[in-house]
Amino acid sequence: MLHMRREVTSVEDLRAIVGHPLLATANKVKDRLSEAQQDWLAHSPLGFLATTDAEGRVDVSPKGDPPGFVHVIDATTIAIPERPGNRRVDGYLNVLQRPHVGTVFLIPGRGDTLRINGTARIVADADYFDALIVDGKRPILALEIAVEEVFFHCAKAFLRSDAWKPETWDPTAVPPVAQLAKAIKPDVSDEELQKYYSEENLRTLLY
Predict the structure, then answer these.
(1) N or C: less crowded end of the chain, CB within 10 Å?
(2) Burial class (CB within 10 angstroms; exposed 0-12, middle 13-18, buried 19+) of 77
(3) For residue 70, which of 100, 99, 39, 98 has the smallest C-alpha distance?
């Protein structure tokens, strides 16, 4: 059967398809961190930060460190440290244009996630930077986020994907990162790329 493209262009259409009022779970969204949510951050080693630029283009960047890397300044403010990376700083450039950001924080093995949306600012130093030292290194920046919305998200996406089941993992399904980089940088030798992208070398560049 041929299905015609049908775009959803109104809240009414979306409600009809979703099958329940979109605001049915609005009461789970708060504007300050509960103790349980602060405890979640204390055990999360990985998050994702979404930003937009002045043209509305979106960037999503992973952020990771030892569990508890997100610093809770108070119940309405968190700080995410920035470590040396690829130096593109797309997200930070976006924040300077549009400060609203969205985040998702994970705990490996758990399907539920913590989502925090708010207004961000970039700081080059603060009195809590010493608390963010890892391997003897202070962060080069931090992104402070004033919490506007915080809530737990259900586990359905992880249940559908079986993301935490090792027996479903196939890291060799796509070529190693050095081979992927070769397609972008054909002038760089295979040996150089393999050396640079080796886990041993990347670990020396973490901090």
Answers:
(1) N
(2) middle
(3) 39
User: Helices 177-184 and 190-197, interaxial angle, to 10°?
Assistant: 130
Q: Name residue 73's beta-bridge partners.
A: none
Q: Give dist(CA 134, CA 128) in Å, integer.
A: 13
| Residue 69 one-letter amino acid | F
The pTM (predicted TM-score) of the whole model is 0.89
Instruction: Please state, in angstroms and rounded to a whole number, the distance separating the CA atoms of residues 95 and 141.
Output: 13
* pLDDT tens, the chain, 207 aa long: 677 888 998 988 877 887 765 555 556 899 999 999 999 999 999 999 999 999 999 999 999 999 999 999 999 999 999 987 666 789 999 999 999 999 999 999 999 999 999 999 999 999 999 999 999 999 999 999 999 999 999 999 999 999 999 999 999 999 999 999 988 888 999 899 899 989 999 888 888
